[in-house]
Amino acid sequence: MLDNQNILSIENMSVQFPALSGSVKAVRNVSFRVGREKVGIIGESGSGKSTTGRAIMQLQPPGAVVTADKMQFEDIDLLGASEQQMRNIRGSRISMILQDPKYSLNPVMTVGEQIAETVILHERVSRREARARTVAMLERVNIRNPERVYALYPHEVSGGMGQRIMISMMLISSPSLIIADEPTSALDVTVRQQVLSILDDLVTERNIGLIFISHDLNLVRSFCDRVIIMYAGRIVETIDAENLEHATHPYTRGLLNALPSLEHPRDRLEVLKRDPLWLET
Amino acid sequence: MTMIKVENLAVSYGHGHNALKVLRDVSFEVAKGETFGLVGESGCGKSTVLGALAGRIKNWSGSIVIDGEGADPKRTKSQLAKQQMVFQDPFGSIHPRHTIGRTLLEPLEIQGMDRRHERIEEVLRDVGLSHNFRYRFPHQLSGGQRQRVAIARALILKPRILLLDEPTSALDVSIQAEILNLLKDLRERENLTYVLVSHDMAVIAHLCDRIAVMHDGIFVEVTTRSSLFRGDVAHPYTRNLLDGSRGYVATKPPREVAVG
Ligand SMILES: Nc1ncnc2c1ncn2[C@@H]1O[C@H](COP(=O)(O)OP(=O)(O)OP(=O)(O)O)[C@@H](O)[C@H]1O
Ligand SMILES: Nc1ncnc2c1ncn2[C@@H]1O[C@H](COP(=O)(O)OP(=O)(O)OP(=O)(O)O)[C@@H](O)[C@H]1O
Ligand SMILES: [Mg+2]
Ligand SMILES: [Mg+2]
Fold first, then answer.
1. Which domains, ranges and CATH numbers included, belong to chain A?
2. Candidate CATH numbers 3.30.200.20, 3.40.50.10190, 3.40.50.300, 3.40.50.2300; the one for domain B2-91+161-245
């Protein structure tokens, strides 16, 4: 890939958390690039997927240490960026849909007001106009009865509504990189299909990059262009999505075998035998 | 024997002309040891059904009978301990400032149970977490690790009924497989009854004996595991759910992708 096609290049990035007994190395020496494409990240729970996403946004909790040889986003050196610069980038040039949508919203403000706020910030329109745009946005992500949902507080929306509210906020800004952490896990398959096709169009039309963190192998295989597989803080394999079935790493093979399937019902699911050798590659 | 019997359950949120009738008229029975699945559109009221069964939502009408006892909106401590819920949201359901050990200890103290440390170790092992996790706080865990703590907390009181709201959607498929196997083993060993909500039809078919398909506050179809495997379903919405479970279908022809 030509260098100017790259939106993001990460080289040799590690993230450490302080802990009582020394420190936890959550991400270990990962390198990857994202172009104008959909890159999936799958991997076991706790393997560092969300931590990787947050490190790109420079949103790690206090005490966490991020080191890297290079973290380049378009013309910005993320390693050297000031907090002020990062604030301008977050939400406008890089958007992240967090894994816990309802808890990243302000609990004492209705969801509609929060989206409208984003509209005003990005489009400098009147409150009235912002309200109308917000309702239209909620409709676009297939929320029924958007007028009613506008007035709900975060604790009053269902799991899948929370995810769509986050997605609608992201549609308002026009970022060049979207990091979506499990954005559709609470959606039923029909709504999920519609929401994904909105994301898909966005990536194609605006020619941007998407990092799509998910546990759903069938979804990543059918939605993404490439897939990064993480295990214990490391990238163990990167593969074209259409070739996921032919993955070679035993961890990835184990994941494929662990899936329950409508075509091949089994009484017990295969579980993964984790090999200590995987930690050394 | 019937473990759960629900008749004409209705739930509304809000008051006056803002009131929204989420459940209109829901009736079903679940036998002891059976697993009953709930699937349906996002926002159709699945979590609301579980909330009413768990005694968390109090403004319902209709009738709920659990293990032969009528459940009033107000229930006793032992009635409440009989069913435990695993919430959809692993972030909201655990106290943020308590260590995992304390989160697991608390229900044991409330119910006055013995062998507390052994029970905590056992249950952590059951959900595949090492016992060092007792000293961690929720913000130090990944999404999937928190979900396993939530399952551990539900199991620790040895309930008769587990109400499972998307218990594995935050887990990678290898840990999902472990949890699904664990849920099967527990069901056999302890003769537990489950009500399971999931958007993943393969997970539903794997675990459930009968499955209710919800749409707009009512059940449009109650089907069985073998019908799902055969693809032999009546309602078009159920068919949609089955077809959609195969992954994403691009609505436009895929564009050329530069691979780097
Ligand atoms: N603030 C923190 N302090 C200490 N350890 C942490 C902290 N945040 C995360 N961790 C640890 O870092 C590791 C990576 O966590 P991360 O949330 O990135 O995992 P993940 O791959 O997103 O998992 P999941 O799929 O379960 O969401 C985990 O082992 C987790 O326990
Ligand atoms: N406390 C509340 N106040 C007002 N409305 C509520 C409240 N809780 C839930 N609702 C509404 O009730 C409806 C059903 O919510 P519920 O959480 O039961 O849906 P669900 O089927 O579990 O959806 P999902 O699959 O997205 O989790 C939604 O329209 C939601 O906005
Ligand atoms: Mg995560
Ligand atoms: Mg729900």
1. 6-279 (3.40.50.300)
2. 3.40.50.300
Would you state the pLDDT for residue B260?
40
Are the beta carbons of A265 and B229 separated by less than 8 Å?
A: yes
Task: Find all residues with CB under 8 Å of B168, minimum gap 6, and list them.
Answer: B147, B175, B176, B179, B180, B198, B200, B203
Indicate the pTM of the whole model.
0.88
State the nearest Cα–Cα gap between B21 and chain A, in angstroms: 13
Per-residue pLDDT band at B25 (split at 50, 70, 90): very high
B253 φ, ψ (degrees, to nearest 5): -60, 140
Low-confidence ranges of chain A (pLDDT < 70): 1-4, 280-281
Q: Across the interface, which of B92, B171, B199 has its CB nearest the CB of A102?
A: B92
In total, chain A counts a number of residues equal to 281
Ligand with the closest atom to the CA of B15: 2
Most confident of A113-122, B21-30, B91-100: B21-30
Pairing relationship of beta strands A209-213 and A38-43 according to DSSP bridges: parallel
